[in-house]
Amino acid sequence: MIPGPGRFELPEGLVYLDGNSLGALPTGVADRLSQVVREEWGRGLIRSWNDAGWMQLVGRVAARLAPLVGVDPADLHLGDSTTVSLFKTTVAAARLRPGRRVLVLEPTTFPTDGYVTAAVAELLGLELRWCDPADPLASVDEDTALLSLTHVDFRTGALFDLPGITARAQERGALVLWDLCHSAGAVPVDLTAAGADLAVGCTYKYLNGGPGSPAWLWVAPRHQAAARQPISGWMGHATPFAMARDFEPREGVGSFASGTPPVLALSALEASLEAFDGVTVTELRERSLALTERFIELVDEHVGDAVEVVTPREQGRRGSQVSLRHPAAYGVVQALVARDVIGDFRDPDIARFGFAPLYNTLADVETAVERLVLVLEHEEHLDPAYAARNAVT
Amino acid sequence: MIPGPGRFELPEGLVYLDGNSLGALPTGVADRLSQVVREEWGRGLIRSWNDAGWMQLVGRVAARLAPLVGVDPADLHLGDSTTVSLFKTTVAAARLRPGRRVLVLEPTTFPTDGYVTAAVAELLGLELRWCDPADPLASVDEDTALLSLTHVDFRTGALFDLPGITARAQERGALVLWDLCHSAGAVPVDLTAAGADLAVGCTYKYLNGGPGSPAWLWVAPRHQAAARQPISGWMGHATPFAMARDFEPREGVGSFASGTPPVLALSALEASLEAFDGVTVTELRERSLALTERFIELVDEHVGDAVEVVTPREQGRRGSQVSLRHPAAYGVVQALVARDVIGDFRDPDIARFGFAPLYNTLADVETAVERLVLVLEHEEHLDPAYAARNAVT
To answer: What InterPro entries does the database record attribute to this sequence (chains A, B) (predicted)?
Structure first.
């Protein structure tokens, strides 16, 4: 059962609809981190690698994350940024299909995914091919090593058919790398049931790991023996403490490790994931859809002539956010922030509202639309104090 | 002036000589991190990227670090693991010398440095050449793109002549990448004065950033326009919030950024570096040499026939640790830990003692040697409880 916002330290009176950018602070994280710093680091010092189980931290976090994406914890690795994780998995995927020379990419993906794929194509002498977002599979052929897709579009909230696309790309001999940054923790994903190949995700959105928390990556067990990522470090060595001159990879996904794990950040993440205790992915999806559905209904009813809902109305094609198009979207978002409703802006004309099923409520939805109505009625979005565009995350 | 151990939360009665593996906890870090979690993340939420200055965090940490390695903060980047930082700088260096096909590497370097260099050589189709540790320059010729060296040997504590080797390798047209993991914060380094090319270092040893804290990298200003690292992410883009499809690097070392900065870890590091306030690198070096010199003297005097000092006795060739060779070094280290003197073991027969000039004292040195004498006299190192070897960091 969804326990409600009591598991989070949300400021009173704030309607926070930006958990798709930075998740809220779960209760218990601050105390846990304080204990790690004061006791484990401060008093345990170097002994804590063994005594406080820092060497097992990646595995403990993986065990909490695994059910949310339908995998075995043993096949997950955590510790780098999303970008670095994408780089490692993209190189590994290309190497798993050495006879194929094309990496297929979708132009509405998050920019980093494109930059990384282009960088890997250059590094390995491969070809980059942009596909049609409406039909990515049309670009996948016998030359394709990898199709790299983001499951939920960060601008529109549209959802790709992960199992269907995976199966059809695999029929053509390609691998598929899924970016699950906007899925894990809000949209059900069963990578094992889908027979997926590789996946990557951040942990600071719906997983609430904190700003810049470490990303995760997953490699299907059947690929692990042959998969080789290029950033070999001592923590990916079969016997790190032998300090051997030549590299010999650990078995399994452990070979995707590079350096010393980020203990403070992983400890915060471990505590954060306790907010999912006793909650099933089915319950998360039900709550998420109830929230987005109600938001769309109320928007249609009250401001339907002023904004365009760009997120798919079909539930099966929707992630956990709703995006509204408005020519002064930046001003709309800023005026709402001034009224304690936090969403965010995406260039050029999108106001995004993320619905975190663990802590957002139907009351949040209603308050947000009420205040959106007021903003538009009073033309607060045209107020120069809100309408000037600048860099926000 | 060195303010002494009062700037650190050291457990009473413990002699901690492992700051070359994990630095002690500076006072103020726990409170600062608690404030970042509770206030900046918990209450500020997404607004803290601007309001709490998270976007400027890398620059603020760089400003504190820069004087310790003799560089301009604008030329430093922080955020990845040491391994990833080595990978980025090694690829960039090789690309800066496109006509040259050899990466030269020193066999006693930290294993990760070797693994990364070998991985980059494979990726770029280059040749790996192992040099003689006694004369690395003998392997540097007109085919050499890069000489990759660790400034202070992690096993022996021996120090390379950074300015001299840099100058002579550059005369042959090669670049030099320095790994300063065991230098920064204890051994003076002036990268600018040395005319160095590239450098990398961790922050969790003498810089006391906490377990697995983010690494730094430095690229000489003269190389920045042409230097290209391969892990392109949105934070390295000239205009990240334009969310452009194609990558256009930021000017300067900012192009070495990849993903979202690790805010919690960088905040801890920022607070940690306050322990260096008002301390010069010259004072750090004087204190460090006073500690290692006295340790060597006392070891020679009291247990000189039982152990071999493998660290250079010449001060100019010594880092900030002293390593002792003993056939039962593992048992020696474990028996000392049981007597509250913490050093560490390196395969196969090295007991390492790191001297952190910010918090170790001459009293620590004396106590450590007194207890080493007792351990050896009572043959505690042969006690089966201490003598069994297992994985320790």
So the answer is: Kynureninase, PyrdxlP-dep_Trfase, PyrdxlP-dep_Trfase_major, PyrdxlP-dep_Trfase_small
